[in-house]
Structure formats: structure tokens, C-alpha cells
Specification:
InterPro entries: HAD-like_sf, HAD_sf. With 183 residues, the protein is an alpha/beta fold. It has one domain: Rossmann fold (3-Layer(aba) Sandwich). A five-stranded parallel β-sheet has the order 1-5-4-2-3, sandwiched between helices. The N and C termini lie far apart (37 Å).
């Protein structure tokens, strides 16, 4: 079980690049809660697979229990025919509530494009990044999917205890990206 959280060179590099490449913060959709994501719209828009962040998206940081509504929505995505995997930089041993949903491991940390591409190939078994959507609460890490050719769906973060630097960089990136969000 690897832990890809913390300050990594790839995160620092993306943080700096966001100042000069606002197009890398393009947002496909933005929702208040994970359960507000329209599965029908994803499918209508040609999405075949989703990578889902955990901390701040499915529950508060470091959660080990997730609401029935969140678990149900993840399982509905899978039942609809979408390929689904959880892609977190944090520990991978806390997702027992999501039966049949793989947890991405042994790939480079988000926001490295090669991490997203390996997750797509090995865990979703898809080949075209344009048919994959990364769902998450952090433009700095999860939004790195855009550099890999994927769509990024922003979910407002679920409040809870979290590292100050993580919160500050996430909030900074969110403020930078507001002008790059589609309806």
C-alpha cells in the first residue's frame, strides 16, 4: 500500500505551471456534491470511464467510512456501464465499502500525466483519454488529468481536518481556475 500524498516534485511543478498555463485548469463540469454528478450526462458526452478522487471528494480527508449516498452513487456509475476506479494519492487500504471498484496503485502520483494514463490503461482498461473523466476536488492534483487528455469534473471539497498546505494550494488553484469552467 503506497502513499503518494505530501509534497512531491510533480505537484510543485504543476503548481508553478498553473500560473502560466490557465488552459490546464479547464473544467468539464462543476458540482456541489459527488452525488450531484449526472451519470446520464457523462454517458451522453461519450465518457466510458471515471477515475474518482477520495479525500475531499467521496468524504473528508482520511475518511474510512463513506455515506450510503456516496457509496450508492459510485456503484450506480459502475452498474450504468461506466468503468470506475478510485485514484487517490493517499493510502489505498480504506475503500472496503466499494466492492468491485479497483483502487489505483503502483502508478506515479497525481498530477503526473503518466499516472493518469497508467490508471486509465491498467485499472479502467481503456485506451482513449478523451473518454475518461477524473472526478475530484483539487485542481492542483486531480486537475492534472487535463494534461493527460482527460476531462476534469470538479466537486466542491467536503470539509474536514486536512493539512494546511494541501488546503491552501487547493484553494489557490480553485481561485485561479474560475474563469476556465464550463457550465
Amino acid at each position: 500500500m503506497s502513499d503518494r500524498s505530501g509534497l512531491k516534485w510533480v505537484k510543485l511543478k504543476r503548481f508553478i505551471s498553473l500560473m502560466f498555463q490557465p488552459e490546464s485548469m479547464t473544467t468539464y463540469q462543476s458540482v456541489s456534491r459527488f452525488e450531484d454528478i449526472s451519470i446520464e450526462r457523462l454517458k451522453t458526452d461519450g465518457i466510458e470511464g471515471v477515475l474518482i478522487d477520495a479525500d475531499g471528494t467521496l468524504g473528508p480527508d482520511h475518511a474510512r467510512q463513506y455515506s450510503d449516498a456516496v457509496v450508492g452513487h459510485v456503484l450506480k456509475m459502475k452498474e450504468s456501464g461506466l468503468k470506475v476506479a478510485i485514484f487517490t494519492n493517499a493510502r489505498e487500504d480504506r475503500f472496503h465499502q466499494f466492492p468491485g471498484i479497483p483502487v489505483v496503485s503502483d502508478v506515479p502520483a497525481k498530477p503526473a500525466p503518466e499516472g493518469f494514463l497508467k490508471a486509465m490503461e491498467h485499472f479502467l482498461e481503456l485506451e482513449n483519454p478523451a473518454q475518461v473523466c477524473m472526478i475530484g476536488d483539487n485542481y492542483l492534483t486531480d486537475g492534472g488529468a487535463v494534461k493527460a487528455g482527460m476531462l476534469f469534473l470538479y466537486v466542491e471539497p467536503i470539509p474536514g481536518p486536512e493539512n494546511f498546505i494541501h488546503k491552501w494550494t487547493r484553494d489557490w488553484a480553485f481561485k485561479r481556475c474560475k474563469s476556465n469552467t464550463s457550465p
